[in-house]
Structures are given as structure tokens and as C-alpha cells.
Amino acid sequence: MKDLVDNRKRMTLGTKLRVLGLTLKENGLLYTMLLGIYYGGSSVADRAFAAMQRLRKSSGLPGLNSRGLNAEIWDNWDWQAGGDEWTPSNEWKTSLVANVLKPRVPAGSVVVEIGPGAGRWTEHLIPIASNYTGIDISKTCVEVCGKRFAADAAKAAFRVNEGNNLPGVADGSIDIIWSFDVFVHINLVDIGTYLEEFKRVLRPGGRAIIHHGTTAGHGGGWRSDATTAELNALITSKGLRVAEQFSEWQDGPTRHDVGLYQDQVTVIEKL
Fold it and tell me: Which residue, 239, 223, 228, 123, is CA-closest to 178?
């Protein structure tokens, strides 16, 4: 509905009235009445959403991105689609693996993945890692991945965390941390705790590649309260540095967006 509200702002009142007249002529009264209800509802929903986001930011509310809500939601999510319900196309996913994941995860790396879900990216990380650990707030996801990747148990393990920590990961032992479709749902307070964990577990020069929101949730998509500026300041305050940051990548003649809601990928390096 937000798209509908945004798009209709691009029409003048005269155009809207003409569109209404044509709609009535071509579709009849009942259809036009239902459209009016839909338009009115979308406007109310848009205003309510904007008010929710302002209240959330001004009052420091977690919105739908607290650790408790994240655990409840992902424990009870239907994972039959394997996480590919968030994949815009097979071409996009193949290109992301080839142009984002593999160039930044060197073969033989010791890897931690935060939020493997049902293994959407895990299947590409395990084969190139010398050792892999998947850590998720959801017990369901840990069980799903444990079964799916049982054949890789010699070098791959999965465990549950509290949504902001890396339990069982030794200090200075990790080359790469990977997390996609996860930090978009993690609020700044918990991102800060994660960053402290990054500094603890990464080797000098080690990197964390995270996909995150940029607009504090104002663009929709159930995003966290983080903006890019706030995230970057937090990274610096924890003694880490932003090595790379992008919202799209080029694959030959094709440009791909990181996400549907102005998302970014940030590569964080331990100095």
C-alpha cells in the first residue's frame, strides 16, 4: 500500500479526478467504491506506519526487532522455501554468490555465519571454508541446518545464540563473518554488542560482511532502527573500520540491488 500512496502523489488533482471518472465508466460503481476504500485504507496505513516509525525512534522502542520477537518469529517461521522467499530471482542469487560472497570469502577461511536460517547462503560457504560455524537465534534454524548439512559435520557446526553474541567462538580465531538478511532485523543496541564480539573473535585483518538496512525502517521491509550514518559511527566507536560499503553491484551489463528496501552491504575490518 505504501507504493500506492507514493505513486499517487505524482498525479495532479485534475488527473486523479479524470482517472476516477474513467474507472467508474469502465468498471462500474461497485469496483470504484472498493477502490475508494482501498485508497482510503492505504492512506491511513501509510500515516500510521510513519507515526509508528517516529514514535519508535523518539522513544527508543524496539519495534518488531527486539531479540525476543526475533526469536519468536524465526522459531515459528515456515522454512520450507529455504529462505528463498527473499530471493528476487535465481539470476540475482547466482550473481550475489559470484560477485559478493566468493570474492570476499577466501578459500580456506575460518567462517562464522550469523543467522544461517535454512542454509540459503550456508550451502555456498561450507565448501570454501576450512571450518564453519553457523549461529542463529532460532532453535528451529539450528535444527534445520544441522540436519541439512549433517554430511559436513566434520567441519561445520551450528549453535543457538542470544541474538547479539557469538558463544563458543574463541578470541582471534575467525577470518570471515558473513550475515545476509539478518542485520536488517537487528536494532542498533544489539548491533553494538555484536560489533564488540566481532572485535573479539576476528583475527587482525579479519572481516565481517553484513547486509543491513539504512533508513531506520522508514522505507518498510520490517527493517531495524539503524541508519547508515549511525551504523558507521558505531563501527568506528568499537575500534573497527568500514572497509567497503555498497548498495548495488554490477555483473556484466546487469546491475543488481542489494535489497528491496535501500539496503546495503558493509564490510567491517578489524585493524
Answer: 123
Lookup: cell for 215: 533508513
One DSSP character per residue, 139-201 reads HHHHHHHHHHTGGGTTTEEEEE--SS--TTPPTT-EEEEEESSSGGG--HHHHHHHHHHHHHH
Tell me the chain's radius of gyration from C-alpha atoms: 21
Residue 39 confidence (pLDDT): 81
Between CA 117 and CA 74 the distance in angstroms is 8
Q: Can you list the positions of beta strands (E) in 51-95?
A: none
| Distance separating alpha carbons of residues 194 and 190, to the nearest angstrom | 6
Q: Which cell numbers in the block locate residue 144?
A: 534445520
Range 124-158 burial, b when 16+ CB lie within 10 A, else e:
bbbebbebbbbbbbbebbbebbeebbeebeeebbb
Q: In this predicted model, what pLDDT tens digit does every residue of 26-54 receive, in sequence order? A: 999 998 999 888 888 888 888 898 899 88
Percent pLDDT > 90 in the chain is: 77
Q: What share of the chain has pLDDT > 70, as a percent? A: 96
Q: How many CA atoms lie within 13 A of 121 on its CB side?
A: 32
Q: What are phi and psi of 178, to 5 degrees?
A: -120, 135
